[in-house]
Amino acid sequence: MKLTKILTKKLTSFWLLSLAAVAFVFLLCAVMGFTQLTYTFQQQKVAELETMLVADYQQHGNKQFSTWLPPLLTAYKAVDFSLSHNSQLIYQFHHEQPSASKSSLTLYKSSLSKGQLLMTMTLPPPFSLRNFGWHELVILLIGFTSIGFFVRFGYGWYSRELDGIEQLAQRSKLILDGHLKQAADVPTNGKPRMINRAISKLLAELDDAHKERGRLDQFIRKDTFLDKQTQIGNPIFFQNRLDGLSHHQKMVAHGVLMLIEFDDVDLVEDQFGEGGVKAMLSLTTEAITAVLMQYEDSIFARRSYSQLAIVVPQLSLLEADQLAQRILKTCIALPFYGIGNPDNFFHLGCAFFKAGDLQLQLVEEAEMALRAAQLQRVNNWFMYDKGALDEQIAKGSVRWRSFIENALVSKRFFTLQQAIVDSDNQIMHYEIFSRARDLQGNDVRATLFIPMANKCGLMPQIERQVLEQVLFRLMSDNTSSYSINLSLDSLTSRAFVRWLQSTLLEHRPLAARLIFEVSEDIIVKNQENISLVKTLDMLRKMGAKLAVDNVGQSVVGTHYIQEYHFDLVKLHRSIVRRVHQRSENQLFIRSLIGGLYRAEVKVIAEGVECFEEWQTLKILGVSAAQGEFLEQRSEV
Q1: Model confidence pLDDT, tens digit, residues 49-76
Q2: What is the dihedral of CA 21, 25, 27, 30, to 10 degrees?
Q3: 52 SS3 class
Q4: Contact 235, 302 (CB under 8 A)
Q5: Calpha distance 304→100 (Å, rounded)
Q6: Which is more confident, 510 or 241?
Q7: Helices 494-506 and 530-541, axial angle in degrees (round to 10)
Q8: How far is Cα 28 from Cα 450, in angstroms, rounded to an integer?
Q9: Whole-angstrom Cα distance, residue 625 to residue 615?
Q10: 554: closest CA among 382, 178, 167, 296?
Q11: The whole model's pTM is what?
């Protein structure tokens, strides 16, 4: 990270500059001292020569100067020398040195022997006469090597001492950017260690606080939507989910509703107490939950004191019959000996529904089927006779696979869009929905072909065609953003992920206007799936946004929202439906938004159908919404 090296660069640059300045000052002083010392030494030699001249003149006059002066002047490296007696030249010496320029020569004039003699001598600069020998060069080399070694050692020591501060700067930047997990993973062995330990402790406590907040949200959901004895959905949860499967009180998909009732529960409570009833219900719900594990989006709740309810959407009539038989056999096999009449204790009523059926009528049909099973006075199940079924529902899996494969080859999948509107009635982006056309040109609902495509493993191919259409739309529209739902098969398919990665790399500017939606159920059930985590991380790094939808459909914690860095959270329509009349749903939304405080996550409501719902959601703090009240879907 570039920003975290600013302090080290500044301090080391200041230290090196200071060291260079000190070295320069010392070197300058040494040069000046050497120059001054050589001049002083030259002046001393000139003074000695003057003394010798005066002594020789007083003793011998001017007769012997020519005998001893030339060797001495040659040793002095003198260029010119003249000696005059009463303005009369008595001796002159000249030695040419081509390497010395006249401007650099030093001139000495002296009056000797009380003014009787006048000496003039020109000498070269004293420091120019010094030549470095090999031993002196070795000493200089050792000195500079030692300086370089100590400079390198000092720089390394400085860097090591500042590593801790760099770590602090790096961790601080990660914290400010909201990457708390990465900040906690940064090594903390640098100095000052106490500050690093303090930050690590605070990050650990903050992470625990986030998890505690998620546990609190889960507790609120459990206390609001779960039955305390059986830990399955309560009547509020059942009604919310049933409302989520309907639109204007009409079912939006096909499936089956089952009502399970235990006879003589009051007698069981009198005989075994409340603990016995709880144990019986817990044993039964655990067995039924194990049977329902293979059915996605199934709803299991306790409707009343002695009645359980099961809703399994996207199920054919034949599959509903098989499921009812399995549930009956599983419950009959439970150890209910000594509890009332074990042969007439358990009854199951089923009502098959298709899209367009009234919700109230469906519940009445299930209750009628339950009463019919009870009239038989034996553990049994009964299916309400619906009559003619939807022809599309009745298709077998082989015919569905053939239909989907032909639709993929002939590109008969198309898209619809629905606007997501913020609290200022401005369009944030559009959500993309898929449809298919059969050979007669009729539209096939996604609620029909998506479950079959999941069973056949064809969802990656369908979602690839949908994405291609969305990318083409983005190229012609420079302003809008679109959200696309991705299935678990697509997110974990290597071929689909490789294609998606190469496509986003090719159209990198478009990635910022894409939002990929993943169901909460997929995230919660596949948190240990490394390929899923890597795919989500890749999409986020490419610049696309991530959204989690169907939030509130299941009773789970919400800590995963910040852990996986989701940008948008979409409330399930069962939480939004009639929210202005349901305080428990309002409590859940308040808790969710409170848990996302300070996080850059927007909460969006799905399935808004009336003005009162939208007004209540805005008061609760929901950022945007989509639904029939805000905008109708239109084909792209």
Answers
A1: 888 888 887 777 777 777 788 888 887 7
A2: -170
A3: helix
A4: yes
A5: 118
A6: 510
A7: 10
A8: 85
A9: 11
A10: 296
A11: 0.61
Contact 478, 426 (CB under 8 A): no
Helix (H) or strand (E) holding 209: helix 193-225
Amino acid code (one letter) for 123: L
Question: Residue 418 contacts by C-beta under 8 Å, 6 or more apart in sequence?
Answer: 430, 431, 433, 626, 631, 632, 633
- pLDDT tens, 73-118? 887 788 888 888 777 888 888 877 655 555 577 888 888 777 778 8
- Say if residue 258 is exposed, middle or buried (CB neighbours under 10 Å; 0-12, 13-18, 19+): buried
Parallel, antiparallel or unpaired: strands 568-571 and 602-606: parallel
Contact 233, 241 (CB under 8 A): yes
Q: If you search the block for the tokens 């509903």, which residue do you land on? A: 320
Beta bridge partners of 414: 435
Q: What percent of the chain has pLDDT over 70?
A: 84
CA dist 626 and 573 (Å) reads 10
- Listed in order, strand segments (DSSP E) in 438-551 are 443-444, 482-485, 514-519, 545-551
**Lowest mean pLDDT: which of 181-185, 282-286, 289-293, 623-627?**
181-185
The pLDDT of 193-213, averaged and rounded, is 71
